[in-house]
Amino acid sequence: MSNATTVSNATATSQTPALSPDITEPSLHSPNPISVNTNTTSHHPMQTRSKSGIHKPKLGYAAQVDYTVTEPSSYKIAAQHSQWCIAMQDEFDALQKQGTWSLVPPPPHKNIVGCKWVYKLKRHSDGTITRYKARLVAKGFHQQQGVDYDETFSPVVKPPTVRLILSLAMSQNWPLRQLDVKKAFLHGTLKEEFYMAQPQGYIGSTNSHYVCKLQKSIYGLKQAPRAWFDSFTTQLLHLRFTASTADSSLFIYHHKGVIAYLLLYVDDIVLTNNSTSFLDHLILQLSKVFDIKDLGTLHYFLGIQVARTPKNVLITQSKYASDLLIKHHMVDSKPTKTPYSPNTRLSLHEGDVSSDPYGYRSLVDALHYLTFTRPDISFAVHQVCQYMSTPTSIHLTATKRLLRYIKCTLHHGIAFTPGLLVYLGSNPITWSAKKQPTVSRSSTESEYRALATATIEHIEVDFHFIRERVLRKDLVVKFVSTTDQLADIFTKSLPTQRFIDLCHNLTVSLKPHSIEGE
């Protein structure tokens, strides 16, 4: 009996952690406590914290996200916060007000498209929260071409058009107003027969198996942008506006001495004209048909910050550039004075193949959008854009140099040309830089080809020859010194001082300006 007890105690000792000598463990079979032998020690040479008497407390952390400052990823999360619940209710009420759908029994042999809630925090240019926005989005990837949709193309305003209108407003001292259309896509009318599942959280109790038959377009549908554009342009035509032949998103009003220009980019609108009373009248007329929000004087448009003074209009993308630096962890990088090294010549196969080509493409795409107000980086961006398919470590280094230059020139703005630069007055409007299909034997021939390309864009193609136009005095060709050739910044890498001089001549801002929200 004693032997069995000894074995039992030995087994318990080997399976339980050692206790301090003054602690005893009661026996399961006897009311009298049995002392536990704590003198058994390990002879392994490894020194552990336990052997040294070091006992670190174990702390448990509960992961918790504040969804009042973060966008929730699902309806289940959003439904637990009042701000997002209010936003969803506002969206649902707007859908009902527009008569977006009617509930019907699910028709047989019809494609039923799903839907989901998407959440977005709307912010000012300084990053502070403006409002909580919830949007019901159809799962357009379930649509079938020829069944659920056909035409999908919808134009957007071109960057040169935006710069042209801003320059015109400044030169004529016209006001610049910004409008926003709430729930814009809900104003489009569908031409196709379309069915969608009921939204999560708003499924009827008596007809839960019913589906939504859409009468109006909704976000997420492939044809929704086109339906909204058609609806809005139809209303503008009723108000005597005409669409520009050069840009279908620019609308012009010219009647009885009143001139007005309207820019449309999806649901964002910029207005300028020579009559304040007409501007107010136009906003009133549009408000009768659409849910229009007057944002007042133009300050922030498509990620572009606009600052107006009596002498000029400055447009920058400093907030966009700052967010780009944060996203790619380049905030603490060493700044540089030029975006592209004069001694660098990129090639297709130099360097190791990038392990993240998608990340490279995303970065280059973001840099390309930054050229909207930054012509000084145009050449460098065009260089790194040529290696999107198989980027290498050398190409990534070149893009990081671009980010280092952006950090050094965060508040630079406005500047814009294939060796051609088009001005309205002293303001650069459009630019481009293109590879020529043939090899020029001299710089003079190269500049002649660039001039020919520029004239093709602005006069009849059948009569684009430079010599003929000069003889007809349609064009005046003047000598420009090499030191004054502004197009060099778009066609080649330059030394630091030469680059800075050209930036100054292009009216690119070289010092911080006061922008609303900064």
Task: Give an overview of the whole structure.
- It holds the Pfam family RVT_2.
- InterPro entries: DNA/RNA_pol_sf (IPR043502), RVT_2 (IPR013103).
- Residues 27-51 have a biased composition (Polar residues).
- The chain is 31% helix and 18% strand.
- By secondary structure, it is an alpha+beta fold.
- The chain folds into three domains: 2-40, no CATH class; 75-302, no CATH class; 318-518, no CATH class.
- The longest helix is centred in the N-terminal third of the chain and has 16 residues, at 82-97.
- It is globular.
- Residues 1-31, 415-420, 436-442 and 511-518 have low confidence and may be disordered.
What are the main properties of this structure?
518 residues; alpha+beta; 3 domains; 15 helices; disordered N terminus
